[in-house]
Design a protein that fits this description.
single chain; 207 residues; alpha+beta; 5-stranded antiparallel sheet; 5 strands; 50% helix
């Protein structure tokens, strides 16, 4: 009688969910699995052996990744964090110097609409001014900074700089909010100064 023996890996599912697949570049469902080798007799697993390292498998492309890939936010999560951070940033700037300016409130809403969505109105911004006006921006912007490229963070701050400088020099309180936002997005004071210089030069050239 011939004895057919060998080894085989079986997967134990530890969890499922949604993640941003590095290969697909979109949100996909995944399985978090852990492999274990088994000793087989006639291709039947009979003796469990060593556990392997857990890994993530994309249900769509079947790509496999280290478990750390799950620490990155999904596209949906990042969109929510970005919208919340932008709302807090503009609301605090309005609270600092433009609380009673309907024109600046409308301008802030116009700048937020592409990020927040079409349902955002001046009434929403006024409510955000009350909610975020005295909050520290780092709690809203630090999660965004961790998942955004330097160019993206620069663009986000640049939009705020354009907003607060649209009518010329800004009050010191508003400039302080801009500096706070830049620091929370991990942009240095020198980097912010360069953004301000670039924006004001462009605005002067258009006037």
């Amino acid at each position: 009688m011939f004895l057919i023996w060998g080894w085989r890996s079986l997967l134990k599912v530890l969890g499922v969910g949604e993640f941003q697949c590095p290969r697909c570049q979109v949100d996909r469902s995944y399985r978090l699995v852990r492999p274990r080798r088994w000793f087989t007799v006639f291709f039947i697993p009979v003796i469990p052996l060593k556990w392997g390292e857990p890994f993530v498998e994309c249900d769509a492309c079947k790509g496999t990744y280290r478990e750390q890939v799950l620490s990155a936010p999904t596209n949906k999560q990042f969109a929510y964090m970005l919208a919340l951070g932008a709302r807090a940033m503009y609301a605090k700037a309005v609270a600092a110097g433009f609380r009673h300016s309907e024109r600046m409130i409308d301008r802030a809403v116009a700048r937020l609409l592409p990020v927040v969505g079409g349902a955002y109105t001046a009434a929403n911004l006024v409510a955000d001014v009350e909610a975020f006006g005295d909050q520290d921006l780092v709690q809203y912007l630090a999660p965004v900074a961790a998942s955004m490229s330097p160019q993206g963070r620069e663009t986000l701050v640049g939009g705020l700089v354009e907003f607060v400088h649209e009518d010329g020099p800004t009050p010191a309180e508003v400039s302080s909010v801009v500096s706070e936002a830049a620091a929370a997005l991990e942009l240095s004071a020198a980097h912010l100064a360069g953004i301000v210089s670039s924006v004001t030069s462009a605005q002067q050239g258009q006037s």
